[in-house]
Amino acid sequence: MGKNLIQQRRGKGTIRFRAPSFRYIGEARHRSFTEAERNAKVTGTIVSIEHSSGHYAPIARVRYDDNQESLMIAPEGVKVGDELESGFAAGVASGNTLPLLQIPEGTLVFNIESSPGDGGKFVRTTGLSAKVVERSEKDVTVLLPSKKQHTFNLWCRATVGLVAGAGRTEKPLLRAGTNMFKKMARNKFWPQVKGQSMNAVAHPHGGSRSSKKNKPTIAKRFASSGGNVGHLRPRRTGRRKL
Length: 242
Hints:
By secondary structure, the protein is mainly beta. The protein is built from three helices and ten strands. The chain has helices at 6-11, 35-39, 176-184; strands spanning 42-50, 59-64, 69-73, 83-86, 97-99, 108-110, 130-135, 139-143, 149-153, 157-160. A hairpin with an 8-residue loop joins strand 1 and strand 2 (59-64). The longest helix is centred in the last third of the chain and has 9 residues, at 176-184.
């Protein structure tokens, strides 16, 4: 019999499992790509550095010379009053945003666009940075924090430097309640327990006892969506003999 699993109920997108985005200060992304920015550059000033419950990294509010204001992920080492540049002719300095076409090899960057104009999708959390490895006539190769290399369009923009807030994960949470409020800020599913510890109505592996060691966890080949959990078509099970 199929079960309505927690991940299925969350994926449906009901209000119960929706993130409280109305509390977020806004979307941190590169400013809209104007004609002046494409041909030259625009200069902006950091008005404030704010905290958003929807982002782990600090958020910098930047007001540009053309009266356009945007939120960006704060780079390491900036402060209120610093001037940042954005555009094709921007200098290669920490906090400046420019296309990968203009960034030399070996430069650390973050908040890289997946496609030109999407505002930034890669390398956005605290303390991370990527490195420009090589550039060809068609694309730019970037070494991501996962040690994988990814190719981007030449006109994809990125911010020079590394994301501020490094060392965030080094601070211990100490209490379960602290972790609870951290997850509640984004409506993350917590705590997570194994299926064997659930009731039979909540999971196919659940039952009367909290831990049934002898219950198989291999899903049937043609199991329903609710029963398609556990080892999905495993090649082998059990401990491997040396």
